[in-house]
Amino acid sequence: MGWRVRAAMEQLSSWIAPIATTIAACMTAANLGTRVTGWGFVVFTIGSLAWTSYGAVTGQSNLVWQNLFLTAINLVGVWRWLGRRARLDEGARTAAEASEHQEAPTLFPVSALTGAPLLSAAGETIGATVDAMARCRDGRIDYLVVGSGGVGGLGETLHALPWADVTVEPDRIMTDARIDRLRLLDPSHWPARLSGGPDLETGS
């Protein structure tokens, strides 16, 4: 390999590797959904291959082997999020859409209760679903935990939204309630019940 080619490869990979790794880290850390996370691992793969190339042309065998291993891990991530997880999400979406056309209650994927936008009656995003608390006996949901404000979870405020105030459709979650009037939650201490009796943990 000529020195000019080696120099060009070294310069190109020295730019691609850190840029791709940084972008991929932002994509996966943002937790913007199955497809974004999956493509984040695709970008991670590009980054690890670029680091492998850089290690090869600069004679750093430890960098080469490390990033060959990381490339294998990243490919597993691509399969997990763009392969397996995407198929599962598609199966849930298909079932939800099919249930709309049958004489039975409409279904929705319970996974939608974590990380989905919460819309107001006007269709504006007022928060994001964090989790839901359900009864062990019958699986009925008692309340939805909703996050608002902050960036990436930092500075986020948690609220308890009664399930009676939630409207769920196959492609969205809505409420007529005003989020600033909902009960505030301590991130590490959620109520055992939202209403209809004393809190089972505090007795209040």
Provide a descriptive summary of the structure in words.
With 204 residues, this protein is an alpha+beta fold. It has helices at residues 3-29, 34-57, 61-99; strands at residues 117-119, 125-134, 141-148, 157-162, 166-169, 172-175, 183-185. The protein has a 7-stranded mixed sheet, with no helix packed on it. Strand 2 (125-134) and strand 3 form a beta hairpin. The longest helix has 39 residues, at 61-99. The radius of gyration is 23 Å and the shape is elongated.
How do the helices and strands line up, and which of them pair or pack?
Elements: H1 3-29, H2 34-57, H3 61-99, E1 117-119, E2 125-134, E3 141-148, E4 157-162, E5 166-169, E6 172-175, E7 183-185
Parallel strand pairs: 1-6
Antiparallel strand pairs: 1-2, 2-3, 3-4, 4-7, 5-6
Helix pairs in contact: 1-2, 2-3
